[in-house]
Every structure is written in structure tokens, then in C-alpha cells.
Amino acid sequence: MIDLYYWPTPNGHKITLFLEEMSLPYAIHPINIGKGEQFAPDFLKIAPNNRMPAIIDADPADGGDPVSVFESGAILIYLAEKTGQFYGSTPRERIETHEWLMWQMGGLGPMAGQNHHFRNYAPEKIPYAIDRYVKETNRLYGVLDRRLADRAFVAGDYSIADMAAYPWVVPHEMQGQTLDDFPNVKRWFDAIAVRPATIRAYARGKEVNPNPGIRTDEERKILFGQTATNTPKA
């Protein structure tokens, strides 16, 4: 059994995509980020960066004590190595999987996240910031589109690299992007959307939080107002 500490955000969806593809038994422990549950001392023991998702695997491959893992990319690698699936079958394929996973972790996710913030959540609309991140998101979609020009998925067969990127493309309209501008991304996106595991994963998200979004000033303060001095400690 894997305990998944989760909220249905793009990073959270990455992990349910993998778990549903593998039909691994898991239990969701909701971490309501709008209420600040990511700062609870018990959660910080396994996720010191105050972010979900995180997992505890009670049945690690080495048969030892339970293993906890935080950071969505690290969790995907851990699960891929544990199961031997969605990771590439050769060293060269794994290099490509790592490259595109890191591309998402270091590029698409952070840039689209800032895009969401300044476009949709910031109390003051700053044209320079909005323009900066909408354009950079657009550039990254172009990178992905070129990569997918001659292949179905980003690193050979469907892999953790696709599972990492897909949830950040789901809210493309919130990012000011049109998939019709990126036909290869659109084809890739549509193929992943209809996978039974994808449908199940997103259904689990709706069960956990039927009404997503940031609605109150208190939620904004919790999500966007933390510093080193006012963040709760484990």
C-alpha cells in the first residue's frame, strides 16, 4: 500500500496518473493547500518543502522500513524504478525520459505556474509579468510541439515524462494558450486524455476537491504569503 499525500493540482495529478496506470493499491490523504494543511508538522516530516505531493511506501523493493518521498519528479522516478514501468527499457531511453522529466520540472511547470499566478490569481494585474510568462509558456509549448513532430510520446513509449507534462497542459486556456496552434501537442494531449487511467486519475481528483480554485483572501495569504520566518516548522 502506498500512502499518497495529495491535492488535485497538476503536480498531484502526476502521481495518480502513474498509480492508476499500474493499478497499484494506494490511499489518498488529502492535503488541503488552501487551508494550509501542507504546513502541518506531521506532513513536514515527509515533505520538508511544504509542498504536496508526497508518498510513503510501506512495501519498498528492498523489503526494509517504509520509504517516504517528496517532490513529484522524484516520486515518479521512484515509482518507475520500483515497478520497472514507464521508464524506458534501455539506458538511452532512460536518458531521454530523465531529460524531458527535468524539462517539465525546471521549465514547463514553473513557467506555467507563474503564468497562472499573474494571469489569474495576482490581486494586481501586472502587464509585464503576464506578458513575460504567457510568452515563455508559449515558447515551451513550441518546444514540446517540435519534439512530438515525429513521435507519439516525448521519450519513446508512454512514460513518466508524459505523465509529468500532461497535467500542466490540461489548464492551457488558463495559460492563454490554444492547442490548435500546436497540432502535435494537441494530438498527444488527446491521446493521453482518453487513457482509462487518466480518466480514473482525474475522477479521483474531483472526489477529493469537487470545486477547485482559489477564492478567498485567506487562501491567497496561505498559498502566496509564506516566508522563512512565518512558515510553520516541523
TrEMBL record:
SUPFAM superfamilies cross-referenced by the UniProt entry: GST C-terminal domain-like, Thioredoxin-like
Q: Which Enzyme Commission numbers does its entry carry?
A: 1.8.4.-
**Looking at the record's lineage, which domain of life comes first?**
Bacteria
Q: Where is the signal peptide?
A: none
Q: Write down the Pfam families for this protein, in alphabetical order.
A: GST_C (PF00043), GST_N (PF02798)
Q: What class of enzyme is it?
A: oxidoreductase
Q: Name one GO molecular function term.
A: oxidoreductase activity
User: Where in the numbering of this chain does the GST N-terminal domain appear?
Assistant: 1-87
Q: Where is the GST C-terminal domain?
A: 90-214
Q: InterPro entries in the record, alphabetically?
A: Glutathione-S-Trfase_C-like (IPR010987), Glutathione-S-Trfase_C_sf (IPR036282), Glutathione_S-Trfase (IPR040079), Glutathione_S-Trfase_N (IPR004045), GST_C (IPR004046), Thioredoxin-like_sf (IPR036249)
Q: Which UniProt keywords apply?
A: Oxidoreductase
The family annotation for this protein states:
Belongs to the GST superfamily.
Q: PANTHER family this protein is in?
A: DISULFIDE-BOND OXIDOREDUCTASE YFCG, GLUTATHIONE S-TRANSFERASE-RELATED
Protein name stated in the entry = GST-like protein
Q: What is the organism field in this record?
A: Sphingomonas vulcanisoli
